[in-house]
Amino acid sequence: MQIEGSGTSVFSEVDTYIAREMKRQRLPGLALGIVQGDRILYLKGYGQADSSGRPVTPETPFGIGSIGKSITAMAILRLVEEGKIDLDAPIQRYIPTPYNGAKFITVRQLLNQTSGFTQISTFSNTLSSINVQDQDALEKNALSYAEKFLKRAVQTAQPFRYSNANYVLLGYIVKQVSGQSYGDYVKEHIFTPLSMQDSYVTLDEAAEHGLAKPHRRIFGYNVPYEGPYIYIPGDAPAGYLYSSAKDMSHYLLAQMNGGRFGEHSVLSSESTRLMQTEPVPGTYAMGWMTDHINGLQVIGQPGGSIGFQAQTYMVPEQQLGVIVFANVLDAIDASWPNKTHVITTTHIATGVISLLNNEPIAGSGLSISQKYGVVNGLLFLLGVWLLYTTYRTAKRCFGPWSPDKSNPAKISIKVTARIFLNFAGLILVLLLSMTQVLPVWHIATIYQPDLILWLKVMTVLMALKGSLEITRLVRLNGTKKEEEA
Question: pTM for the complete prediction?
Answer without folding.
Answer: 0.91
